[in-house]
Amino acid sequence: MVDGYAAGRGSPTPTAVALDLDTVLTRPVRVLITTCLLPPPDIPRVARKRCGGGLSLSRVSACDTDPVPSVYKITYPNGKIYIGSDLTDALTYFGSVDSALVEQDFTLEQRRDFTIRKQVLWESSDATRSEVVRVEVEFIRRLRSNDPRLGYNRWPRRSDPE
User: 12, 65, 76, 126: which has the highest count of C-beta atoms within 10 A?
Assistant: First the structure.
């Protein structure tokens, strides 16, 4: 094994990594970890942590090697929302919202300091793609993010225009 990768395969192999915390905390060290940190087998996993390529010094550091599909809500500074789904479990994925719809609601000055919020509404490690889409549509309808006054979703179309 070389740098956490099986030779010739190019896929990461989860590996337990031991760190000398005194060294890490007292000397400036640049650390690049390409494998997932796994908890010792005798410590129960308290909560699933997502693997983001970084180093977590929390009580239990763990990551799942398989992505966990989710449905999320993005909230924009004007209060409008976008509901989307992510099958890849990517922290930095913010959906496929129509940029033109969002841009028309903000001035150039407002765009210079722009904060959005991403909240996971639902996730399931064993969900099929069709189940994820079904749950996404349920949230779009329930939260009415396909109403142009409330959100940026344009699908599914609203059946009760007001």
Answer: 76
